[in-house]
Amino acid sequence: MPRPVAEAARRVLVCQGAACRERGGMDARHEWLLALHGRSMVVVPTACLRFCLHAPVSIVYPDGVWLPRLTGERVREVMRALDRGTLEDVAGAIVARTDGRGGDGG
Ligand code: FES
Predict the structure, then answer these.
(1) Per-residue pLDDT for 102 more than 70?
(2) Fold of 5-95
(3) Is the Cβ–Cβ distance between 56 and 71 less than 8 Å?
(4) Is 48 close to ligand 1, i.e. is its CB under 6 Å away?
(5) Alpha carbon of 28 to ligand 1 centroid (Å)
(6) I need a labelling partner for 21 at 20 to 30 A (CA). Which of 47, 59, 67, 89 fits?
(7) First vs last Cα of the chain: how many Å apart?
(8) Residue 14 Cβ < 6 Å to ligand 1
């Protein structure tokens, strides 16, 4: 049975808009669903995230990490990074700061 969203430690938004679907978003969603087995995560398909130039796009919350060009093949790379405790070293990852420091790391 799928884990209720409110109970999950992480939520993965996987864009299923037209540009993302054309560039592998459905495969990425499928790989996310396979990868989350046994983890406190849920996969939430979304409409267009307005980041189409970087399709396919996923976002991991509460980490606030946008993952551009996240094809299904790269989902395992992201899962290994999650196991190490951070997504910031995933190639192309964009950390959306919520601590008022801005997004440039400064
Ligand atoms: S279709 Fe995915 S960001 Fe627009």
Answers:
(1) no
(2) Glutaredoxin (3.40.30)
(3) yes
(4) yes
(5) 13
(6) 89
(7) 42
(8) no
